[in-house]
Design goal:
Layout (H helix, E strand, L loop, with lengths): L6 H4 L1 E3 L6 E3 L23 H21 L3 E5 L2 E5 L1 H10 L3 H30 L6 H14 L5 H13 L5 E5 L1 H19 L7 H6 L1
Antiparallel strand pairs: 1-2, 3-4, 3-5
Helix pairs in contact: 2-4, 2-7, 3-4, 4-5, 4-7
Length: 208
């Protein structure tokens, strides 16, 4: 850990919105960022509590998002309700293995990864753990990067609903599952935004 230098050790404070770095001695209490004018602080207020609340809410909504149908397909009198998983299976059976893999990764793997990574970051930050500081910081950046791709299912249902409505004998209708899934994506994105990655390095500064 000796090769890692934190902003607090350098006497600087970074803006969590635009990233501008200011000298700590030029940042009195209540100071704002010179560039985007948001309040500057060494740590986000109540970051852990807010992130836990958002993550737990997303985890609760993730169950109906997967159990309830997200889409109803009506074609020549045949009605078919699909959940996320049954939709992936149907794509695979119909020969669209590549699309099935994409939807599975975006709708199942990515949300579960975000739950696991954010949960690990929260627990380790609360315990001020010195375990794998650099790796935990990289995992946080990865969660931020892939978060938006979880909306793929919502986009697919919206696109199909708009396109198939032009057909005379078939139509696609969104079902309640897509609402729950959209809420899960939004809440996990808000959770990653509310988590302060600077908390990862607090143990290092305490040890020093």
């Amino acid at each position: 850990m000796t090769d890692v230098v934190t902003a607090r050790e350098l006497g600087v404070v970074g803006c969590h919105v635009c990233g501008l770095v200011s000298r700590a001695e030029h940042v009195p209490p209540g100071a704002t960022c010179p560039r985007c004018h948001v309040p500057l602080h060494r740590r986000k207020t109540n970051s852990l509590a807010r992130t836990w609340a958002l993550l737990l809410a997303a985890a609760v909504l993730y169950l109906p998002a997967n159990l309830l149908p997200i889409m109803r397909t009506v074609s020549l009198g045949d009605v078919d309700d699909n959940t996320i998983l049954t939709g992936v299976i149907e794509l695979w059976r119909n020969g669209s293995a590549d699309l099935a893999i994409i939807v599975f990764v975006a709708s199942i793997v990515v949300p579960m990864t975000k739950f696991i990574v954010l949960g690990t970051l929260l627990v380790s930050a609360q315990r001020k753990s010195g375990w794998a500081l650099k790796q935990r910081a990289r995992f946080y950046r990865l969660v931020e990067l892939v978060g938006y791709w979880s909306m793929l299912d919502v986009f697919v249902v919206a696109l199909l609903s708009a396109l198939v409505h032009f057909q005379v004998l078939s139509r696609v209708e969104p079902k309640p599952g897509v609402i729950y899934f959209g809420l899960v994506v939004v809440l996990t994105m808000l959770a990653s935004m509310s988590f302060d990655p600077r908390l990862i390095w607090d143990r290092k500064e305490t040890d020093d």
